[in-house]
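PROTEIN DESIGN WORKSHEET
SECTION A - STRUCTURE
LENGTH: 340
TOKENS:
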């Protein structure tokens, strides 16, 4: 079976104004395009790893319009990911793996998509990328923030160009930025909810600024200039349990505005849900080693799901499909910057 990947050096003229739903027909599948620029080492950018997260695509289209009749400041290698899911407005299609869980280093079984990401990675390794940026949206209420997989000066410098709020994580495996962290400074940028013009503008200006960098300083960022949080656990809802938000006759009835808790430091004893007929801890919570740590962070008291210690959620979402396909969200704690 042949590769899923298309590799080109030009994009169709229609790409610059194409809607996400049109890309599958326009491009024919996942596409890696190499565009020349004044500086040779390319900035690698990935968009639409999740087909319904469209801000990255819009930012790239805005960037290409900005440089339509002039040279890019730096070469740009652009990977346009799950165009089939984008056609249907979905994160991924039934039967597809998550395009941001199958990059080198993944625990996932062999699939054509996993082989494609390995191919993209090896092509880019040979091109010696200057830096890597993966663009995403959230479904819950979150600030714009940047994620890094190494707390090293150049990673922090690049990420802080996008936001003062940084999240350091090493799980889940198989994400794009974890793979590219092996060969260059790599960040994932979370641009808020889909359809917000502020997110599109922010992503566009960050990409433009990144293309203009001659180098990424290997110098510390001042502690007062960034807030770094470490993702310490992934929170999932077991498939056997029903859930809803607000008031409903389900096993786990989360508070109606659960996603408003993102990036807020919650005190111990905060209530997240009312339980109906569930007496044991109803969430699967795993740390960086994959160990279940639910009892470290949560307890059941008088039919309520409560926190046992101060913690900060991120990416808590009200989207049932995302919760079932991926997770409810993450737990974080503050993390120190590396020594000067």
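SECTION B - SEQUENCE
RESIDUE ASSIGNMENT:
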């Amino acid at each position: 079976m042949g590769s899923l990947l298309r590799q080109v050096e030009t994009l169709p003229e229609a790409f610059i104004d194409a809607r996400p739903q049109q890309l599958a027909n326009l491009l024919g599948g996942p596409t890696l395009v190499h565009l020349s620029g004044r500086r040779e080492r390319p900035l690698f950018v990935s968009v639409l790893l999740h087909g319904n997260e469209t801000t990255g695509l819009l930012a790239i289209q805005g960037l290409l319009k900005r440089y339509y009749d002039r040279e890019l400041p730096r070469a740009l290698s652009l990977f346009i990911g799950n165009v089939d899911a984008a056609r249907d407005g979905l994160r991924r299609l039934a039967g597809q793996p998550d395009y941001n869980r199958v990059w080198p280093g993944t625990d996932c079984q062999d699939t054509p998509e996993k082989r494609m990401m390995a191919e993209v990675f090896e092509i880019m390794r040979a091109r010696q990328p200057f830096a890597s940026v993966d663009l995403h949206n959230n479904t819950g209420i979150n600030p714009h923030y940047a994620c890094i997989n190494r707390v090293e000066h150049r990673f922090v410098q690049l990420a802080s160009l996008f936001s003062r709020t940084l999240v350091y994580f090493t799980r889940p495996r198989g994400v794009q930025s974890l793979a590219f962290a092996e060969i260059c400074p790599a960040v994932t940028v979370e641009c808020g909810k889909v359809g917000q013009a502020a997110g599109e503008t922010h992503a566009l200006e960050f990409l433009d600024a990144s293309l203009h960098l001659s180098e990424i300083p290997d110098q510390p960022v001042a502690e007062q200039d960034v807030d770094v949080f470490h993702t310490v656990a992934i929170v999932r809802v077991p498939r056997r349990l029903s859930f809803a938000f607000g008031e409903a006759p389900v096993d786990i009835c989360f508070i109606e505005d659960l996603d408003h808790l993102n990036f807020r430091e919650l005190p111990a004893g905060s209530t997240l849900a009312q339980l109906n007929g569930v007496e044991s801890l109803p969430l699967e919570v795993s740390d960086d080693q994959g160990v279940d740590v639910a009892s470290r962070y949560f307890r059941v008291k008088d039919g309520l799901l409560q926190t046992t210690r101060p913690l900060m959620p991120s990416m808590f979402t009200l989207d049932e499909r995302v919760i079932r396909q991926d997770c409810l969200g993450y737990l974080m704690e503050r993390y120190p910057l590396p020594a000067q």
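SECTION C - NOTES
Residues 232-334 form one domain.
Residues 21 and 88 are 7 Å apart (CA to CA).
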